[in-house]
């Protein structure tokens, strides 16, 4: 694919070095494309931009991020730092004072694994805040909701409600609904929760863009884009307001995908929006015990997790979309889900469509080599490992050794595009690279890295956010490298990640972010 970018003025970026070539200090770009790389006294442009000694990397790509949800999270009640339910209740008591009549109280980010008592909370706790205002708090992974009695009543959810396939309504010791809805059970709330308007969606996306640019992000793979969001993205391109490129995964909703299934993949002329993939959810999440395991949870012996889709129908859907030229991206976290996902692609997939498994967190050793053999790309988020490592053994027992197998997957012959799953985790590529290289948290724990044999080299970690996402989105011919003919997307850092100790990676600053040859962020 070739790019058609209308901007014809040239820009020369000087006083810099390339991450892989310190002897070069200038880059000439025209029409959003790299034209020449060399020395500043040899290159002239219509506009000179001084990068102040920064180190230039190919623009960082987040291979798995939820753009709309990220934007919404910036203004939604954030509960990620709560250390216990009481702290959350205190926050809600203050927030509820400012609600309008008939308004829901929404929040997100709670994680019972971070509490002294890591059991699920109960609706009675939220009832103590209000019996009149409906309260809905999403878990940090988005795979569970904690609601009060009012929310259950409005939605008509009772002990006899029919639960959608792939969902659970948790009950307490007395058999009463506890107010925890797992995975597809949350669909029971959809008819009554106020919908986000198009204007609100556009505002949320516009809020997310500068945040991402500050982190050095020039491109994302949006893991589930609905029809309205696609139309907003097209509008932002026309208004010249979209400061990242978006590789969109269609949501599993006929109203979203039918048009594109008929017309085929959509590639905007400048490469700023590509619609060539479909996102499906095969299982839930590990933190909420919805990830599908081959055997039961170590801390929940009666539970093996949830499979959210019918396997035979999913094989048919994969074949249908691959035939129409669309990649399929299948959410699989547990080892059972990953095995079934690989089976689905083996039976229904076309290897040339570069089908993906999103997350691929827990993989049975018998399935490791199947990714490379089948041409299935494991799209993974390094920061999930360092977030989960403190409690994952409680979930899996000795099977924790089968999780986050980056090194083993690479050695088997596949690539691993990296991402964050934001807003669940921080979308900072620098934090992701640090996690991939060290397998430590921000405090440097554990000292030698968690299961350090799976650590990546700095060069491999950089590829996770540059070259490998480009290949995973069919863009390797114009994105992910700094070379003539490639898109002029750069992330400019304060230091060369390959020249410092791994412990210093987190101290690296983003100095500039350039998208399509234009400066979209400067520190």
Topology overview:
Layout (H helix, E strand, L loop, with lengths): L9 E9 L7 E5 L2 E6 L8 E12 L1 E6 L1 H7 L3 E2 L6 H11 L9 E6 L12 H5 L7 E5 L4 E4 L1 H7 L11 E5 L5 E7 L14 H17 L2 E9 L1 H12 L6 E6 L3 H10 L2 E2 L5 E9 L29 H13 L3 E6 L2 H14 L7 E4 L10 H5 L2 E3 L2 H7 L3 H5 L9 H6 L17 H10 L19 H7 L2 H6 L17 E4 L16 E6 L2 E5 L1
Helix pairs in contact: 1-5, 8-9, 11-14, 14-15
Individual helix count? 16
What do we call the CATH topology of one domain?
Answer: Diaminopimelate Epimerase, Chain A, domain 1
- Which radius of gyration do the C-alpha atoms yield? 23 Å
Shape: globular
First and last CA, distance: 33 Å
User: Approximately how much beta-strand content do the residues carry?
Assistant: 15-25%
Q: What portion of residues is helical? A: 25-40%
CATH class of one domain: Alpha Beta
The main pleated sheet reads as:
8 strands, mixed
Average pLDDT score: 95
Count all strands and give the number: 21
Based on the structure given, which CATH architecture of one domain is correct? Roll
Backbone structural class:
alpha/beta
Which residues sit in consecutive blocks of at least 5 with pLDDT less than 50?
A: 1-6
